[in-house]
Each structure stands twice: as structure tokens, then as C-alpha cells.
């Protein structure tokens, strides 16, 4: 008998859009456990000492995130639910990598957004990001328009955003974003 795959809630949005806060709120409000796997965990000194992060940083960053995606897939394969906190940008092929890995998994693809002025305010308040980093990522966010749901962390409270995602998560047959993206990638190969 095949084990049921764990569900995946994939939060994609620019830096300071509110993904990490939303991930914690989702964990608090969901009725079953979800583990959070975030790109910040895999690409900074939480998992790797600083002295090694800057050695061929781009290559290390890419490999670490590839490892994160495989960890998410492994969690799902053994029935563990996960929330992914990531920033997929056009400058690399990570979206294609994710779609290839997860196109037949129960994955809800969530676009997390907020207005530019709010992104700037959050960057200043946080103090741990370069001012303008999130704004520079806006045009590079990949994809721009193919998601199962979009939530605005400025226009709605974190609880309202979480509740919208949880409501959508109850209907896995409506998770079509990765299926659409997979079809788009396959048609480009033909």
C-alpha cells in the first residue's frame, strides 16, 4: 500500500513580503502539523558556518536550495506536510527545478505580496536587508502570474491570509499552478 504524500504549501514572494510571518501563522492555525523549510535556513549560518557561505557563494546557494527542494520532496514522500518559504527569481532555473520535482505532488502554490511602499517600510524596520532588495526582486519574481492563490499581507491581516490559504488547501484538486507550469515547460521543449 502506497503512503499518502504530505501536503506542501509553497509560499513564493519577494523579500519582506511576509512569507516567514505567514508560515508561522499557518502553523498556528492549521489543524495538522506542518514543518517549515525556508530558503533563509538553507542559505545562511543557521545550517552552514559563515566562513563557508561566501566561498563560491552562488554555487553554494544553488546547491543548498536544491537540497531544500529534495528535503521537501522527501518529507512529502513519507507523509509529512511542509510549508516552503522561498523567493523564486527569473535569474535561475529554480522554478523549473521545483516544477519538475513537484508537478505530481499535492502542492498549493501561493503568491505572497504587498505594496512597494510597505516592502520598503518593512526593510527599514527589519534592518537586516538592503533597502530596495525586495523592490528589485519584484520584476524578477518567477512566475509573475501562475499561482493557485495570491494573498496580500498588507491588505489583509496575517490571520486572514492564513485562513484563505487554509481554505484553499482543503481542495487539492484545485491545485493547478504546477500542472500549468509543467505543461508550459513541456511545450517549450517540443
Commentary on this structure:
The protein has 190 residues and is α/β, with parallel strands linked by helices. The protein is 48% helix and 14% strand. The protein has 9 helices and 5 strands, in the order E-H-E-H-H-H-E-H-E-H-H-E-H-H. It has a 5-stranded parallel beta sheet with strand order 2-3-1-4-5, with helices on both faces. Helix 4 packs parallel to helix 5 and helix 5 packs across helix 9 (177-189). It is globular, with a radius of gyration of 16 Å.
Beta-strand fraction estimate:
5-15%
Tell me the total number of β-strands.
5
Shape: globular
Q: Report the biggest beta sheet as strand number plus sense, adding barrel if it closes.
A: 5 strands, parallel
Tags for this entry?
190 residues; alpha/beta; five-stranded parallel β-sheet; 9 helices; 14% strand
Q: Topology, please?
A:
Elements: E1 8-12, H1 19-29, E2 34-38, H2 39-43, H3 50-53, H4 57-77, E3 81-86, H5 94-102, E4 107-113, H6 116-126, H7 133-138, E5 149-152, H8 158-169, H9 177-189
Parallel strand pairs: 1-3, 1-4, 2-3, 4-5
Helix pairs in contact: 1-8, 4-5, 5-9
Amino acid at each position: 500500500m502506497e503512503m499518502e504524500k504530505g501536503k506542501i504549501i509553497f509560499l513564493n514572494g519577494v523579500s519582506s513580503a511576509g512569507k516567514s510571518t505567514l508560515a508561522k501563522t499557518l502553523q498556528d492555525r492549521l489543524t495538522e502539523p506542518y514543518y517549515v523549510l525556508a530558503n533563509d535556513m538553507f542559505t545562511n549560518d543557521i545550517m552552514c558556518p559563515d566562513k563557508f557561505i561566501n566561498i563560491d557563494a552562488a554555487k553554494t546557494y544553488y546547491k543548498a536550495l536544491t537540497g531544500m527542494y529534495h528535503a521537501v520532496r522527501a518529507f512529502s514522500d513519507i507523509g509529512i506536510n511542509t510549508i516552503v518559504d522561498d523567493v523564486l527569481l527569473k535569474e535561475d532555473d529554480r522554478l523549473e527545478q521545483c516544477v519538475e520535482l513537484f508537478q505530481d505532488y499535492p502542492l498549493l502554490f501561493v503568491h505572497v505580496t504587498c505594496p512597494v511602499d510597505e516592502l520598503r517600510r518593512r526593510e527599514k524596520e527589519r534592518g537586516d536587508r538592503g533597502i530596495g532588495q525586495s523592490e528589485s526582486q519584484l520584476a524578477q519574481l518567477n512566475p509573475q502570474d501562475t499561482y493557485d492563490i495570491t494573498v496580500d499581507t498588507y491588505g489583509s491581516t496575517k490571520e486572514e491570509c492564513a485562513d484563505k490559504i487554509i481554505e484553499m488547501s482543503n481542495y487539492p484538486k484545485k491545485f493547478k499552478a504546477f500542472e500549468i507550469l509543467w505543461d508550459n515547460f513541456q511545450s517549450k521543449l517540443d
